[in-house]
Amino acid sequence: MKHKNFGYLMGEGVRATFKHGFMSFAAICITVACLVIINSFALITYNLTLTVDEIQKKMRIVVCIDETYTEAESKSVGSDINMLDNVANAEFIPREVALQNFIGDSDESLFEGLDPNSMRDQFKITLADNGKVEETKAELESVVGVADVYADIEVGNAMATIRTVLYIASVAIAAVLLVVSLLIISNTIKLAMLDRKEEIAIMKMVGATNSFIRFPFFVEGFILGLFSAVISFFIEWGLYEVIREAILRTGLKVLTIIPFTDVLLPMALVCAITGFFVGIFGTLMSIRRFLRV
């Protein structure tokens, strides 16, 4: 394409967008609806993943040290524990504190006279990867000075499985929604081109190249994608915050729901990239049949 034709073709693409206003409006509405669905699902999945992560972070492995060890010797065992690959942190809990934790909110008079030496020094272990609870438990049991290791392997494995399932499901569903969106916008734009097929046929007959005919539609798809991306972004922002505030008012603390501002840039990029992709490729897919004259 010659450079002197670039400005003309750009202008034709912009004029065509507004000339066929109703169909452009319809294409934008459909694209916005598809983008909102895709982005909403992405945000739901992201928040659920964060919720699983928060639950995993609260999981602890409790390591009890041999009762014959002094406090200094118990602390030295902590050095060996921290050397393990999957140990993120090892918090030392002396016997006295372990006794207080055991008593908890109970009536202290029930445990009056209980000797702290009846307890053992402990470590509360935070893991780097909670999906490796079983392997880490076995490694902790092999450390010299460790008497017992208490870990909920089933819960750890369940959290790891949920996280993997969420990731696979989000990728699969996002891909399906993207393909569906592409097909919908392609068919919508195809309807808008029906009243322009004679114009395209005439241009082909007088010798216009496919790229010369295609470029204004490329520009049109870019504009449609831009408008769709901007509109869907602000609609998603508003809907997300309304739903987030409603959930927070219920006092439900199990779910982790971050403010939209925390994902502002990623969501803007997702809206822009998805909008441009759907708009441009949807347009180019639609025009293919009209270039066969």
Query: What portion of residues is helical?
Result: 55-70%
Globular, elongated, flat, extended or rod-shaped: what is the shape? elongated
Total strands: the figure is 4
- CA radius of gyration is 31 Å
Strand content bin: 5-15%
Q: Helix/strand/pairing class, anyone?
A: alpha+beta
Q: How would you write the strand order of the largest sheet? A: 2-3-1-4
Biggest sheet features: 4 strands, antiparallel
Terminal-residue CA separation: 21 Å
Q: Can I get a quick summary?
A:
By secondary structure, the chain is an alpha+beta fold.
Structure description:
This protein has 293 residues and is of the alpha+beta class. The chain has helices at residues 3-19, 21-58, 71-82, 95-103, 133-141, 153-193, 197-205, 210-249, 264-287; strands at 61-65, 87-93, 122-127, 146-150. The model has no long low-confidence stretch (mean pLDDT 78).
Jot down its keywords.
alpha+beta, 9 helices, single chain, 68% helix, 293 residues
